[in-house]
Protein 1
Amino acid sequence: MNESFSPDLFNKMPIVGIIRNVADEHIETIATVYADSGLTCLEITMNSPNAEKNIALLADKYAGRLNIGAGTVCSVHDLEKAIKAKAQFIVTPIINEEVIKACVAEKVPIFPGAYTPSEIYKAWSLGATMVKLFPASDLKPGYIKEILAPLNFVRIMPTGGISFDNFTDYLAQGAKGVGIGSQLFPRDIIMNQDWTALGDIYAKFVKKYRDFTGETQP
């Protein structure tokens, strides 16, 4: 039985860090720096080398500290591998009805990708836990507010183009979380194994989110 996804961890810091194509030898160190900073949710994409092994490693080691998910799940085959690896949540770049329905049946949180109002509504109506608005890079934060005017019951997580400078802007418009990739895992810093610099980046994200919410607790 997989460790259950923790909504409390997600709500505490609703930033999903997306790890793609990071060398195996750095995964565990990055996760430690990530968790120690106060960030709580990590996604490893299934099109990364050894994704299943790394998902399983982190799911075991960081149980109760991090939600560990599988991203870029495009098929039921991908989903089966992710669940076997103990992924606690599933993220897709597309709407695959079979994947969504299977996650709903197994009570595994599913964040399917969608872009237009019709796609967003379809993903939600199929049982999405949250809809990944993707790609958000060409969309202004106000798009969230416009979508939520008629679809105020939908939980949206923009991904793609989300950065330190703008992530709270999307949250201010009603997004319930954000997905962030390269800004949280800068290739040069990781290649240089500058874990202090990486921790500084994470600390800045955490502080900005806490300032945004008015939270004073560390």
Protein 2
Amino acid sequence: MHETIDEPALLEESPRPEPEQPPQESDQHARGALLVPEGYAVIEGTTEGGPRSVGVVVSRFNGEITDRMLRDALEELERLGVPRERVTVMLVPGAFELPIAAMALAKTRRYACVVALGCVIRGDTTHSDLVAGEAASGLQLAGLETGVPVSFGLLTVEDVAQAEARIGKAGEAVRTGLEMAHAFAQLRTAV
């Protein structure tokens, strides 16, 4: 049991649910849950969508993959209770353009979070490394400069088969964005 700061900034004790453990493809990640000792105030978001507005920026490049990622993200938003009229989708040419679009959406202050979706597939040169690295840095900068959570749904893979196996990362990016938006809302009401 721990204390949670809710929307109205009230402290109350509530049981902490055990996080679901996704299937592991390899031993690249450690299993287990983070547990905060009793007696500390905890700010932790949930993935409930509710009335939040969400911006989704998606790359058209590698459209066979990003189209499926967009559909997965939109289905997840709907499943989590975000109405269609609260979602704006912005299309950009490629992954390199994701950060500037995410920054533009975040600067409007109309969105609780921005979800960035794209796919970079390694080619014969280092171009993919440059694009992926700059897109990652730019997306992080968009969130840091605006204070609006920008979630990272950019696949960086070796081939199309790896990309297809990771389509579900779009839904994960949605959940991450909503969780951060909820945590930030709690933080604002707790101060």
